[in-house]
Amino acid sequence: MDNDFSNVTSDLDVKATYTINTYTVTFNPNNTRIEEKEFADKEAFVSEFYNDLFDWINANRDKMTKLKYDEATSTYTTDAKSSGHDDESFTDVAGLRALGVYVFEAGISAWLYKPIEGTNSHEYIPEEDSNYFLNTEPYRTKYQNMNSYLLNVMETSYTGYNRQFGQASNNRVQIFFRFHQWCKGTNIPAFDTLPKYFDSGVVEFEVQLAYETATYDIENGLTLPIPTADGKTFKEWNTKADGTGTAYTNLEKGTFGNMILYAIFE
Q1: Is residue 140 within 8 Å of residue 134, measured between CB atoms?
Q2: Element at 214 (helix H, strand E)
Q3: Comparing C-alpha atoms, which of 238, 260, 256 is closest to residue 248?
Q4: How far is 1 from 16, CA to CA, in rounded Å?
Q5: At 2, is the pLDDT very low, low, confident or very high (cuts 50, 70, 90)?
Q6: Nearest Cα to 27, choosing from 182, 237, 256, 246?
Q7: Domains in the chain: how many in total?
Q8: pTM
């Protein structure tokens, strides 16, 4: 506001003032090959899953309404009172893994996987959606077998659970209660056959990028860089790695929002 109105004693005109938001574009060279691999054992799977989840939480904490973050101490506190349990806090991966199962279900599980519309199946391919951990790249690709893995557990051991990962009361997703319980040491044999994962770190060709990130705002837009790769011709930047999303050569004035753009080569 352009005038202080904390102590008004007469008529006062107050005008709203605004600042221009700045957005970030991340440029993905899109030059890696995906390989299917196996986890060495349960601990390797659980450790990698929770490390990835913690990284995603750090990047998306503003979306998680039941998770409060203290900048001064880098502490996360879950809002679990609605489930009849006290809040719990964590500052690192070990703390995330140590959360009580009821608190994890009430404060975390709603952001793990986007509910599926229609009928789920073992062939279902997760929809890309950055509001959910398992739907956000690169985790969507890496853990694409998680849907079939969790569906199998529901089909064999928890037949009453919602197979579309629909949320129960207080945003809880039942199967993630059991998953966290198993990760913490409870014997649930249906989880013991581990899912395979996909490693996208194998570089197929080298790409030269002028820079990996850039910022822009709605008043200026952004001229996108042109990457180069030996033996290939750059076609466009795209919002999806397979080129089926929205294509961009530049971000025009009026565009807004953070973006991940993938280089498409011919």
Answers
A1: yes
A2: strand 213-216
A3: 238
A4: 5
A5: very low
A6: 237
A7: 2
A8: 0.70
